[in-house]
Amino acid sequence: MQKRTFLLATLAAAVGLSLQGTAQASDYPNRPIELVVPNIATGSTDMAARAFAKYAEKRIGKPVVVVRISGAGGYNGSRAVREDKSSGYQVLYTHQGIIANYLTKVAPYSYDGFKVGPTVAEDATVGLYVSGKSGIKSIQDLLARARAEPGKLKAATEYGTYNHFMFLKLQKEQGVKFKMVESNGDAGRIPMLLSGTVDVIAKIYSGTQEYLKSGDFVLLGEPTGKRAPNAPEVPTYKEQGLDFTFPAYTFTLFFNQSTPQEIVDSWDKVAREVTSDPAYQKEVAELGMAWTYKSPQESAAAYASAQKLMAELVEGASPVAKQ
């Protein structure tokens, strides 16, 4: 009798939870939604998220508010969404930094600690920049100097970030060694290169044009298989005879594991509509990025591929010196 009562109670609880999830999904959304950006204001992720939010809320019918929860290389923001119990009212907007956090033991989970949603923008222009005073004019010049002076050239980065992994891949494949120097985010690298504190930085193309025009910086190329749509005037490394590529930043939506699949599917529909909107496409291009659409399944496969690549690089990673 007791066993039967226990089984009935368990079944009732399971049915109750199922009905609750269905009710939440059918009622969604009935209040504003937070799009959580785990990075600082005015960064590329923040700007891309704001563009997407503006067009998404027109289709959802409720405000989509960009909320920045920065710190710990993005871990604070991703953790907030992972621990959220609101079933779809907090959505994470981020990139492969979520993999980097896991592989460098900043976070105890990776992209697959969430339900992966659609990808809505990308930036493949994380190129290498040197000072205009350096005498370095090409990627081949940089590598020649790095081989001549092993461990001497200083590269600005932050341990475990996406651009750090790009330096690790370049070192591994080209047999060179840089001295990694800690920088204060993407914006912090520019003054470091201007002042001569470092010799090379990795940065997206957007926000560097004035330094290139003045001759303060030299852009050595982009790590893309073909020229990036948001920087068609910049040659790839392959065009310069160097077989070196690195995956683009992809800006993707992630959901707490408890989020009903119907809600994730509804965001996929919104993403398809937004990324098909010429106004959104134009706004993303004006930010110096490129619009794209990848389904949740395509996004998950791309993140799995990126994690495999990055996992092979993280072992024995160089320490990053503090300034």
Automatic annotation (TrEMBL):
Belongs to the UPF0065 (bug) family. This is Tripartite-type tricarboxylate transporter, receptor component TctC. The keyword Hydrolase does not apply. It comes from the Bacteria. InterPro entries: BUG (IPR005064), Bug_dom1 (IPR042100). CDD domains: PBP2_Bug_TTT. Residues 1-25 form the signal peptide. Gene3D superfamilies: Bordetella uptake gene, domain 1, Periplasmic binding protein-like II. It holds the Pfam family TctC. The lineage of its organism: Bacteria, Pseudomonadati, Pseudomonadota, Gammaproteobacteria, Pseudomonadales. It comes from Azotobacter beijerinckii. SUPFAM superfamilies: Periplasmic binding protein-like II. Keywords: Receptor, Signal. The keyword Signal applies.
